[in-house]
Amino acid sequence: MIISMENAQDKIELGEYLEQRLQDGLNAVAKLHELDDMTEVDITIVDDEEIHQLNRDYRGVDRPTDVLSFALDEDDEDEPELLEGQLHLLGDIIISAETATRQAEEFGHGLEREIVYLAVHGLLHLLGYDHMVEEDKVIMRAKEEEALR
Hints:
The chain has 149 residues and is an alpha/beta fold. The chain is 46% helix and 19% strand.
């Protein structure tokens, strides 16, 4: 899997091993779902102000959130089938470093672990998982835990 990461915020210092841990976590999801090595996902780390604006503009929710996923590949029957070895941009995952920091403290683990969890969660959304109903939430949580192990 090809993973591009951009740190577009300067409020929270990110650990030097974050990028490798993101690679490990997202590659675990890719392996579980047999994604092609040419599948790409872009991750952008932002502040609460930026994610608040995106959440309001795209979801109509007027508050910051922890993670947003923007799929570039909704199941469209008109799209041509991808050939093996062809780059496949799955979508974008936006993570708030400020919200991740608060959640890491709340849950009693490190910031890097929280950001990796949010990235895994975001990638699962890009793959079609959701948690709006309890049955789907249980399935998605199990997939998150499997990838994080």
